[in-house]
Amino acid sequence: MGHWLDRNIIEPGKLPLLLALAAFVLTFVITRTITRLIRAGKGPFGNVTAGELHIHHVVPGVVLTVVGGFGSVASGGDGLGAAFAAVLFGIGAGLVLDEFALILHLDDVYWTEAGRKSVEAVVLTAALVGLLLAGFAPFGVNDLSQEELQNRAGAAASVGVNFLFALIALSKGKARVAVFGVIIPAVAVIGSLRLARPGSLWARRFYRRRPRARARAILRAYHHDRRWSGPRRAVENWLGGTPDPTPRPLERD
């Protein structure tokens, strides 16, 4: 284990990244545990307030992220200073992304259906950082040969093509595929070739006069969501807690 850590983490200079990821994941787990205890009315924890103002944990998260980010730049990426700054950055990022949905909606949607976006953002970030630790380079640069890397034009063309595939996947309404495609180009290529999701920019532009393609896209999205929405919701509920039930609108006579 020690040999693997030295060869794959310490020697390539990835120790700060590993520390940041560990702090990020641990902060999210601890934060969600505390908020779920507060929600259930258990334990010694409670909301942090200043008078009547509820201080969300995104506030100290922003402060720690700024301090950790600038601290990492000031340390030059080496030594104990860089490691400490990476931990601060990971903690801050964990606090911020745990309330990502609040920032997105500018509303306290933490325990609502919209609050699931926070869990998705945390899982996606942790997965991408894990891929970077594993050695995957953005836009598949690690797949290039030494000769191709020395040829700047060829490397730039490869990055541009991979970016184009990721952009097409994004325009087809496949945000997760596009993000992972930045690290693993094959994912972006597959996502760019498959049917777009209904309502996406690609579908509105290219399926408008193609009713058969539009119908196939709707049918495929229906089957995909029916197959995977249940397991995805179960995992999200396990990670972040079950959202509050959406109140049904009052029926008028």
TrEMBL record:
Residues 234-253 are annotated as: Disordered. It comes from the Bacteria. Keywords: Membrane, Transmembrane, Transmembrane helix. Residues 244-253 have a biased composition (Pro residues). The chain crosses the membrane at residues 15-34, 55-74, 80-106, 118-141, 153-170, 177-196. Coiled coil: none annotated. This is Integral membrane protein. It comes from Streptomyces atrovirens.
